[in-house]
Amino acid sequence: RKEVEQDPGPFNVPEGATVAFNCTYSNSASQSFFWYRQDCRKEPKLLMSVYSSGNEDGRFTAQLNRASQYISLLIRDSKLSDSATYLCVVPTQDNYGQNFVFGPGTRLSVLP
Amino acid sequence: EAGVTQFPSHSVIEKGQTVTLRCDPISGHDNLYWYRRVMGKEIKFLLHFVKESKQDESGMPNNRFLAERTGGTYSTLKVQPAELEDSGVYFCASSQELLYAGNQPQHFGDGTRLSIL
After folding, report:
1. How far is residue A95's CA from residue A99's CA, in Å, rounded to a whole number?
2. Which residue in chain B has the smallest CA separation from A49?
């Protein structure tokens, strides 16, 4: 089993739709999680950090289920500008955070 | 605040040649990371510096790759000699906190797109 797995996508949704992505992780000791978005040929950019059960920022909500080892990202009222690849990122167990483990990403296309 | 900067943005070299990538982290960030994304694969960790020391280099693919961070500021990643499978996008990232760095988000540079012919 891969360390971080994500919905394969792509997700094609109309503007205004609500869409949710799932991410599962294998390291039960992981304490913090991140969602990054990556536009084509660009660098990953931090979207949200998740340290407890969840986090909300405007149209974006991240939820964490430690028992089932998954994190979800919900996007409400999708905009064309939300089209990107969404990366689920899980730091390794070590407290010094030696590295991030990236999921393969889920591609979202918001259609007019 | 200036972000993480990488140079060059794109490099095209022939197999067997040497290439050096450079990363300037956000000022004051002790943690510096190198990652690589090979076509069609997920982003993979290469190594992690804390200031000038290599904290973890378990992701380095082989001894053709050499990373340095003299003085704890900018870092270089040298590939010598380059092979075809080294093609990909090399990202650098930095984060601020020294302790519990795993809880800190990392800020990424634009990446260097490396093409080996």
Report:
1. 10
2. B105
Chain A residues near residue B106 by CB distance under 8 angstroms = 46, 100
| Beta strands B112-116 and B10-13, pairing class | parallel
Beta bridge partners of A72: A22, A63
* CA nearest neighbour of B55 among A102, A90, A95: A95
**How is the beta sheet containing A19-25 ordered, strand by strand?**
A4-6, A19-25, A70-75, A60-65, A54-57
Q: Are B63 and B83 spatial neighbours (Cβ–Cβ below 8 Å)?
A: no
β-pairing, A60-65 with B19-24? unpaired
pLDDT per residue as tens digits for the range B89-103: 999 999 886 555 556
Average pLDDT for A18-36: 89
**CB A23, CB A34: distance < 8 Å:** no
